Amino acid sequence: MKQAWGRCGLIVVLLALCCFVLWLAAGPAIALAVLSVILLALLARHWRNLIALARWLRDPAPETVPQSSGLWDEAFAALHRMLRYQRQSESRLSATLVRFQEAAAAMPDGVVILDDADRVQWCNPKAEEHFGLDRRRDTGQHITYLVRQPEFGGYLRAENYGEPLVMKPARGADLTLSVQLVPYGEGRKLVISHDVTQLERVETVRRDFVANVSHELRTPLTVLAGFLETMAGMPRLDNDMARRALPLMMDQARRMQRLVEDLLTLSRLEGAGNPLHEERVDVPGLARALYRDALALSAGRHRIRLELDYDGWLLGNEEELRSAFSNLVSNAIRYTPQAGEITLAWVRRGEDAVFAVEDGGIGIEPQHIPRLTERFYRVDRSRSRETGGTGLGLAIVKHVLARHQARLEIASGPGRGSRFGAVFPAQRLLAPVTPIDSAKKTA
């Protein structure tokens, strides 16, 4: 290209010299006429090349690039190289896209690509099977027009994609899917669906087994505990072994009863046929009742305080909330040494409200905190046996809070106690009902 520009400059210089010599030899009229003819010839050449370029641009192809000379030849050669490189890049991109589509089509999970307006751009065969889509027919359609479950629409609008959504597609009654939305790029999303039908069946069998066994154990344990209490209360019990064994047997029978009750509670909370029956819950009143229960359970061994900085109520199930909060309170009393301080609080925090239980106990190592809500997880098994816990209390708390769109926050450390907070979102909060309101409602 530099050589072409150099030749062009040399031609201009020579043309100027020729015109100057002709001006001196034949006069200005002849020089201007010759210069005009030369310029018209150059203009005609450039016009012809421009027309050729315009025609080629209507259907550009490397093999039909126009031919010329000088600067135009260099320009056409550069266009030829650029177009050839573009075609090679397109070919590589097409091959990459084909390989991606082949890999996505072979995936055992469904994949749907959504644009920034949540319209379907592409989906693999497994997604067609999961959601009843047709890639050719449904491309460009909004995903909620095709996947019509209300829970999926709410999941998409909530934009809280940290946890997958478990749902049953309308077109597959026997199919259970775990659906995860993954944002990427500028407003685009991947919808990834995984068939968890078999896992759900196994989980259902497990829940039913635990519920049935727990239910069957309840009656014989009740009978056994009753007879043990009767025997322990007999006025004449001469055998020393019996006097020592009966209290131990009663303690273990009561512990088994608590375990059975907790298992039945968990099974009831996990059951799909147990919808949440909602009502207005007077949380300050519930906190006062729990405070009195804590005083009775502690029997003067701890300093217990109640802080009610918020008078709001909750929309929820009072029995379930009482069970969850009671577990937090009993854990605090169980794991706090004598003379330690325990605080029950109901406070407002921004748009949320928090029921918190803070203790001055031994604290928990950081590595144990993520697993505390697992069934039967023990930080210290020997200490748990001494305190009489079942290992199911925090699992019950987690399930109750999940049914109320709430979450459990845990802050703890060795030697500095623990704080367990049940955080309720704004949509669960209600204004308190005054006595006047109650009277109007009754009337």
Describe it.
- There is one protein chain.
- The protein contains 14 helices and 13 strands.
- With 443 residues, it is of the alpha+beta class.
- The chain has four domains: 2-95, no CATH class; 108-195, PAS domain (Beta-Lactamase); 209-270; 279-430, 2-Layer Sandwich (Heat Shock Protein 90).
- A hairpin with a 2-residue loop joins strand 9 and strand 10.
Secondary-structure map:
Layout: H1 2-26, H2 28-58, H3 70-106, E1 110-114, E2 120-123, H4 125-131, H5 135-138, H6 143-146, H7 150-158, E3 165-167, E4 177-184, E5 188-195, H8 197-232, H9 240-270, E6 279-281, H10 283-298, E7 303-308, E8 313-316, H11 318-335, E9 341-349, E10 352-359, H12 381-387, H13 393-403, E11 407-412, E12 418-424, E13 429-430, H14 435-442
Parallel strand pairs: 7-9
Antiparallel strand pairs: 1-2, 1-5, 3-4, 4-5, 6-8, 8-13, 9-10, 10-12, 11-12
Helix pairs in contact: 1-2, 8-9, 9-13, 10-11, 11-13
Summarize the structure in short.
By secondary structure, the protein is an alpha+beta fold. The chain has helices at 2-26, 28-58, 70-106, 125-131, 135-138, 143-146, 150-158, 197-232, 240-270, 283-298, 318-335, 381-387, 393-403, 435-442, and strands at 110-114, 120-123, 165-167, 177-184, 188-195, 279-281, 303-308, 313-316, 341-349, 352-359, 407-412, 418-424, 429-430. The strands form 3 sheets. A 5-stranded antiparallel beta sheet has the order 2-1-5-4-3.
